[in-house]
Structures are given as structure tokens and as C-alpha cells.
Design a protein that fits this description.
Pfam families: ABC_sub_bind. This protein has eleven helices and 13 strands. By secondary structure, it is of the alpha/beta class. The strands form two sheets. The protein has a seven-stranded mixed beta sheet with strand order 7-6-8-9-10-12-13, with helices on both faces. Strands 2-1-3-4-5-11 form a six-stranded parallel beta sheet.
Length: 296
Amino acid sequence: MRVGVVVLLLLLTLPAQALTIAMVLWRGETQAEEGFRDELARLGYRARFVTFNANLDRNLLATLLRQQLLPNIEQYDYVYTFGTTATLMAKSLMGGRKPLIFNVVSDPFGAGILSDEPGVNRQVAGVSNLVPMGLQLENGRRHLPAGRRLLLPFNPREQNTLLLAEMVIHEAQRFNWPVETWRIVPVAKRLDSELARLVHDAGDAIVYLGADSYLLSVAPRLLASLNRAGIPTLCGAELFMSYGCSVGTISSYESLGRMAARIIDQHSRGTPLEAIPLQLDPAPRLILGGREKPVP
């Protein structure tokens, strides 16, 4: 028997590599985590996952991290985080004690999660869900009514939304597209009144919905209100498309989860995390009225 065949057979009979992974989630399970688990299994890893779900609550997130994750940090091989808020808090409290793999963070450099300085990213790498804002707005201009301003609801309690607002405003200048920001109060008992106010203020606008965790958590009611009023929408997150957003150029959460898993695979095979560049979806999807179209 040839040596190469013997080596192949030995590799096929090796047990899957065992990993223990803490999953720090800001708003519960998404398709990103499903893709993450599936890809790790496909790559031959036998992973045990321990989930810490903040459920959009900063105080709960801090409690989970301080009282449950950190006292047992040595038992984990990796810490996976979803979203800007969870990633920032986990990174700060962990202090580089374990490799951190973040997912669905729109602007990790702007948020201070990654740095351009050499040697700073030794224990962190990850995936951004952001599709280039210029491409998003270009598709919006092409497929939405002309002559309308862009209204941008934002949650002042979430840094990610503020960073996205800056991107939208900056890129919209290229298209001479007027943009107005609109503060939404992220309080459940005020949602009905906030939606009524939004519909009133957006009557002659196109509403841009970015990947803000609060907006995503109320996506069904948010899109239902805007759609009933006939207000066109431009969206930057996959979940909004499920509830009737007019136009979106978006990344697949399932694909992003698989990309995060491949970072762990590269690191396990010897590639330093700081040598793994920020991962972006190479094939964003253009969705028009619920139907996928080729991206120009």
C-alpha cells in the first residue's frame, strides 16, 4: 500500500478535535450561530458550546460575564461573541486571556475592537456583516423612488448605530442624497407611540434601517407600520428582508457564521489571529421586494 494512502486512512480515522467554546450573544440565537456550529462540525471539530444570552440587556450581559464566564474562563478554548455591544464588553473584561472571535460587528475598527497598530490584535479576530455603504446606497438610488430624503432611525444607546449613521451620512454625500437622523426611544412600552411618530415624520422619505439590535428585535412591527403607510425602506440587515423591506444589499448571517468558524480552523492550524484579516461577505445579496437579484 502506498505511503500516501496509509497517511490518508490514518487521518480519516483520527477523532475530531475537541473544543469548548463560550458563545456570548447579545440578542439570542441567529442563523450566524447555526452556520458557525455547522461549519465547525464540517471541518472536523467536536465542539461543546456554553451560551450566555444577554437578551438586549447590558446589565444582564455584565452579570453573565463577571459571574459566570470569567470565573471559568480557563475551561474555554475560544470565546465567540455576536454584535458590537457583546464584543466590546467581553473584550474589555477578558483582557486578552482567551482568543476572542467576534461576528456580526459592522465597524470593528471604529468601535475599537480591532486596531491598525501592530501587535494589538493578538487575541482577537472576526467577521463584519457590513456591506459597503456605497453599494447599499447605490442600489437604493437605483430601485427606490427618486427625490426623497433618507431618514435614518437610530438608537442612541447603541454605539454600533452611531457608527452606521456616520457611514450613511458620509456616503450619501456622493449621491447628493439628503439624510436626516431620527432618534428612537428603545423602550418596549413606548414602541407603539414611537412607530406612530416615525410614520408621521417619514411620510415623504425613504427609511434606512441599519443593523441595530433594538430595531432588529422589533422588526416585524417596525416594517408592518412602515409598509402599511406605504413608506419605502432601505435595509442593511438580512432579518429586515423577511418582513417586507423594499430594498436591501445584505450579508447572509449563515455565511458569516461559517466564516467565523473558519477563523478558528486557521488559528488551530497555527495562523496567529493578528495575521487573519477582518472577514467580509464576498458575495452580498441584493433583495428587492423579497426576491433576490444579481448584485451589479
